[in-house]
Write a structure and sequence with these properties.
Layout: E1 6-11, E2 23-28, H1 32-35, E3 40-48, E4 59-62, H2 64-67, E5 73-84, E6 88-94, H3 100-110
Length: 117
């Protein structure tokens, strides 16, 4: 079972338009009580930091040292989606629990809380 704050590889195809596609790192956002159910998981999609020339207020930079990822990764607050657990591949690491408040700030901002992270 995936747990909140863990990072997995996920296969996100098929995708449309500006959605991130292909095999990507994803951060599990949904709470563990939900993750135990046979429903979908809420995730934030990541991309290699080298592909992000400028961080937006909705983005979170996660380094190799703190996460277990193979490279520095930016999790994109504008790429939050619900996926079936069957899309998840190998577990790659975990975001330190001390960083989760930053994640919630970004999610709130995306959802309409006007306080800028």
């Amino acid at each position: 079972m995936a747990e909140q704050g863990e990072i997995y590889w996920a296969e996100l195809d098929p995708a449309q338009g500006h959605e991130q596609r292909g095999r990507r790192p994803v951060l599990i956002l949904s709470r563990n009580e939900i993750n135990r159910l046979p429903l979908t998981l809420l995730i934030m999609v990541g991309t290699g930091a080298e592909r992000v020339p400028e961080l937006f207020a909705t983005d979170i930079l996660v380094t190799v040292e703190e996460s277990g990822l193979p490279k520095d990764t930016v999790f994109l607050g504008l790429q939050i989606r619900s996926v079936d657990a069957g899309r998840l591949g190998d577990r790659m690491g975990r975001l330190p629990l001390t960083r989760m408040p930053e994640v919630w700030q970004r999610v709130r901002y995306v959802m309409g809380d006007d306080r800028r992270p």
